[in-house]
Amino acid sequence: MAPAMVMALILACLVGLALLLRRRLGRVRLYRIIFEADTPAGKAFDVVLLLAIVASVLSVMLESDPRLRVLYLAPFEVLEWGFTLLFTLEYVLRLLCVVQPIRYITSFYGVVDLLAILPTFLGLILPGAQSFLVVRILRLLRIFRILKLGEYLKESELLWQALVTSRRKILVFLLTMITLVIVIGALMFLIEGEAGGFVSIPVGIYWAVVTITTVGYGDVAPVTPLGRFVASAVMLLGYSIIAVPTGILSVGLRDAHRQRRQSGRACQRCGCTGHDSDARYCKRCGAGL
Amino acid sequence: MAPAMVMALILACLVGLALLLRRRLGRVRLYRIIFEADTPAGKAFDVVLLLAIVASVLSVMLESDPRLRVLYLAPFEVLEWGFTLLFTLEYVLRLLCVVQPIRYITSFYGVVDLLAILPTFLGLILPGAQSFLVVRILRLLRIFRILKLGEYLKESELLWQALVTSRRKILVFLLTMITLVIVIGALMFLIEGEAGGFVSIPVGIYWAVVTITTVGYGDVAPVTPLGRFVASAVMLLGYSIIAVPTGILSVGLRDAHRQRRQSGRACQRCGCTGHDSDARYCKRCGAGL
Amino acid sequence: MAPAMVMALILACLVGLALLLRRRLGRVRLYRIIFEADTPAGKAFDVVLLLAIVASVLSVMLESDPRLRVLYLAPFEVLEWGFTLLFTLEYVLRLLCVVQPIRYITSFYGVVDLLAILPTFLGLILPGAQSFLVVRILRLLRIFRILKLGEYLKESELLWQALVTSRRKILVFLLTMITLVIVIGALMFLIEGEAGGFVSIPVGIYWAVVTITTVGYGDVAPVTPLGRFVASAVMLLGYSIIAVPTGILSVGLRDAHRQRRQSGRACQRCGCTGHDSDARYCKRCGAGL
Amino acid sequence: MAPAMVMALILACLVGLALLLRRRLGRVRLYRIIFEADTPAGKAFDVVLLLAIVASVLSVMLESDPRLRVLYLAPFEVLEWGFTLLFTLEYVLRLLCVVQPIRYITSFYGVVDLLAILPTFLGLILPGAQSFLVVRILRLLRIFRILKLGEYLKESELLWQALVTSRRKILVFLLTMITLVIVIGALMFLIEGEAGGFVSIPVGIYWAVVTITTVGYGDVAPVTPLGRFVASAVMLLGYSIIAVPTGILSVGLRDAHRQRRQSGRACQRCGCTGHDSDARYCKRCGAGL
Predict the structure, then answer these.
(1) What is the pLDDT of residues A264-277, one digit of tens each?
(2) Is A20 exposed, middle or buried (0-12, 13-18, 19+ CB in 10 A)?
(3) ipTM of the complex
């Protein structure tokens, strides 16, 4: 029961530290520092958190290398525990300063935050649980939350709106691609057989995806003349229909752009729209907007 | 003659079941359920059919894997016969509720529907005919028929119209690509010879397609300095002219878009349409819009 | 001297046949059939010629396969002589019906036409000269000449005009790509050394082209961590700047399109341009165009 | 100490020659020839310099080939010293004709110019320093400086402006790509293990970049069914989101284009610019344009 006691001790210390911090700063002020980014302290917190996440991800990445893991066993252990304690403190602080802790715990970022610290503690009880520490990489997704708060909002919003507007076209395109890829994969399985590595239809479909997206690993490749002829046709097809997503998105972007520009104001005298956002007079009749 | 008798018995049962269903529901109502999708029953039929098709295709795909086929011989046989009976019932129902059965049988989907059930029955008489069951994958194309009926019509229509408008440009582009690829393939056959795997002109053309579409398997690749230099030029060419299909399609999409938008306003005097969005007078008769 | 005599005899026969044809049809009519495509006979000639070229190219392609060449030695020889005699007759006819034969002989198509028949005749004197028959594939380029005469003119003209308008941008882009590729190739040569196959700077440059164009053969690939990191950056770069040729061409296409539409007419009352080609009244002031 | 003396002698000669040239032509005239390109002499200097740079880079490239280095040891040495002396003379001339030599020395091109000549001289004292001559390839970047001075300025400016306008969108896109690639790389490391070559997370990330950018070397490729399924999804993702940089740039190009076009007309009352091409009244003060 020794590891469990160590764990309990650590957690008690962290909770005590978090309670102390909350008393010092007050719940509301702590909330604004941790969850928002419109104060200097909040911005500083976000930057430090991002750096800690990036450093912890780098540590997990390097530890996955078999040679490095053997060479630097102790430093990796120290780093792992350091980041775990830091992220546990952050998790407890978040719990202590939100009004509805249950809602935070069950949110996407809440689950990811918990998963990022659990494996280290579980490793004390269940040997081998630490290998799930890879899940910590998901914390990188917090970068999008931080981006959302800043001035990058407007830029990504336009792109996002274009994707939402085109979601049906994208779905039709993806369904067509999937159907095409299955039919082509089955065809090549029949044509090529096992010589070129087409041992089953799923492998043929994998080949078709690799080919139509112009990735082209070459681990499965046609060797018969007929197979190569069909493959050439598939490549030309893939090379040509790459224009389709581009076309869909550029139409979507243009529409989103126009919508934003026009949603503003209409001239009250002549009713025309499409004024720039900084316009003060109607560009067609000269009346004030 | 035992297998043929089994087959006849099965078919008789299915036809009986189908006749029963037609009497219960009536020909017209059955037609609306099976061929159309504007009633709740019709939509439900389409969804169930689609699920059955996807499940049968998955079964065919998994059966093609040599290891799985040996491991699960019996389940695959059961699944195959199940889907065959289901699709045969569907085929007979379609035959019984259309006014002109010959027209359905000779249509594209009619032929595919028949080909999807034939191999299982043929397998009773001719051992080995079941390997043609792969053709069942073509039934996936029915997904496009179902998409057409729904709200996705308008989305894919615009894309389709853009492709039709640009068909001549696409043809010129494809002809240019094919000519380029043949000339480059022959050139590389002369330069590289058999060292890099360029054993004949068709192989050289296959390499040229693989390279100019930026797929790049690497099964055939230049090894001489001159060959690599020419290959680099071909790659840069392929990398640059990928802009051409994109440009063609985006012009086509814009034209299709404009055409649709223009079709809105009609001149009240002469009734002609196709005016620009900023036009104030009819372009044909000069009347105010 | 026997082969030379055979050759002389053949040529004499062909010239005789050509002279006979010219007397029968007349020089001007023959010219319109062979060089133009606005008469039924001219169109038929073009189609037959195109088919013969395609067939001769197919024959050369198949003959290049070592196995097929051994198997079908005699048929290939017959085909080769057949096409050579046909193309020689065509060449003599072209010479006989143009006003300035020298100008035709020194033109691009004249040289290609001659090169396509020379190797067979040279093979009679110099054994081995027939291997240059591959040059016959260049005759495929005549397809562009035939396309030019038809209704495809307008389509490819717009694309061509867009390329001409953007030629400076394309040059800047290509120069940037070439400089980038040389610098990256030299860098990878220093980083990777011979382990990953980067034996010299030219090989490094070849790798950089293969990577930045997203072809990716894999015959030369980085193996060191630093090399793979730099390679990843190069790939992301290549993946992103593929947008540049697309952007250049789409701006060029839009400009070419606008120019064509506007070059037409300006309203004589209000001076505005941009009327559709079928407009009869000004869209802004309603005056007749 | 012999090599150092040789070096001192050479440098003394070159400085003497440079001083002579400066006295003959005058500092201002020399400056216009070397640093500017608006006089015939300045243009000629740029062309000669560019040719010398290209020739020296070709020499460095060929020398890197192990076979060629052994075969042509002496010619390469002669070329290396020739280009070094030429570039040293150029460097001394530049130093002598600018008003603030320190500013030139610490500028990017100044550092590159110095690095391009240093290795040869260092090779006299430190054997092996000559291998750093590869840095001479960076001098190729001077091509951009020369392009900037010519008529290509306007073309590349538009492209550059589009990139600057879109820098935030590009940053969001790159951050998304990097996050995606890290998460996918870690996922594949867990799924595939060492069988397919995914020995560590960094290798998994390298594979993810190779795949999502559609490069596809094939040196690391999935072999398990689940891994291939995830890989197929990643490929389709990479194939689709290539539309994003294209969309970003084409919006940027359009904006840059519009901005340039709009900058034309200015309001005569308030002097503001940026009016749409179809505007008839000033959007800020309402006066007629």
Answers:
(1) 556 666 666 556 55
(2) exposed
(3) 0.82
